[in-house]
Specification:
With 410 residues, the protein is α+β, with helices and mostly antiparallel strands. The chain has helices at residues 18-25, 40-45, 62-71, 85-95, 100-107, 111-120, 134-147, 178-181, 234-237, 240-253, 287-295, 299-307, 313-319, 350-353, 393-402; strands at residues 10-14, 31-35, 50-52, 74-79, 128-131, 159-162, 173-175, 191-195, 200-209, 212-223, 227-230, 258-267, 273-279, 330-336, 342-343, 358-361, 371-372, 384-390. It has an 8-stranded antiparallel sheet, with helices on both faces. Helix 3 (62-71) packs across helix 4 and helix 4 (85-95) packs antiparallel against helix 5 (100-107). Residues 1-7 have low confidence and may be disordered.
Length: 410
Amino acid sequence: MEMKENTRGKTALIGWSLKAIEAIDKMDRPYVVVGPPEFQDHADENGILFIPWKFDRSIKEVDELYEKLKEHHAKITVPIYEETVEWAGALNAKLLNNPRLFNKSMLLRDKGLMKRKAQMAGIKVGVFEEAQNKQDIYRFLRRVNEALLKMDGDINDPIHVKPFDKAGTVGHRMIRNPQEIEEIDDSEFPLLMESHLDGQEFSCEAFIHNGKVKFLNITEYVKLGHSNFVPASPSLEEWRPQIKALIEKLVDAFEIEYGIIHPEFFITPDGTLNFGEVAARVPGGHIFEHIENVYGFSPFQGQILCSDPDTTEEELAAFFPEEVVSAKGYSGNLMVYPKVKIIESVDIPEGLKNHPYYVRDDMFIPATSKMKVAERVGYGNHYGTIFFFGEDSTVMRSLLEDYLHHDFYR
């Protein structure tokens, strides 16, 4: 890649992502990357204009980073992952002379605040509270099940606990029995507690410019944190008008003007929509890759275009294709979690590898004959992904369901 260095306003990518860097490098706009110091050598070797920065520093030190970006004529910032959202918000507040942008970014980082904001806007959410210790979780589990008129001997409805500011399923636990609460380490507090929401879970990837949704993808979850596909099946897509209306309500409530949002919802068979949470960065679960597979455009480039107030309506209209009808098939994946404590081998069934929807996998192959699996916190981290592509959403869903419980690692 050739170094982009001129005095036009640069786009600053906040966080390190090779896919995002490759995407913006193909665009006719200068850029600078703000990332962890360990990527400095790679950036230098590839001619990437780079500012090293540790994102675990206090946000109060944002002025130092702002001055560095000013030296490089930065115009806007684009957050890549969860831990950079408030940094991008604080920097854009200064670069665009709009102090409220930082406060908005904090709403999108704190799950408790975001649920209150959604609730105040009339968006349906579950019951939620904050937990400072294990006793708070015991009380919440008991109160939720008392409200559901559970009797002695009945199986409890589960509750969920999760960190306030982590992405996706990191640190997320589903708790049904009091003894499961004891597995939570005191260092994990404070936590958000919420009631279990029934219905099919899905996410949306909404590309927003000037407060308007320019492209809306719906990602169907087969199992949260394990499998999904794009676009959603016809049975879920039929609710698109109601889903889009709720997205627009969310955009108005959070006063989102530019960039992308990645909200998660639950929908019941009668079309009732419940809000889960919303993020303002690149989604996990390989969703951007799925969008590019089926629609042919780079979602990273779409995020960059939508983050820039100077992008024209003509540019956006030329960039985004028509939703659903222009999709060339269904792109999905299965994220694999080891069920053993020691990995000795990887087993991918021949029937799976020979399936016409199988594309590839990046399963982790142990360097030695035996490898210890890292201890899981909540849902933990997957150790490999299997990718699929095909023309029928029913086949895709069935395939992801069939292999969900297979022991790929032994």
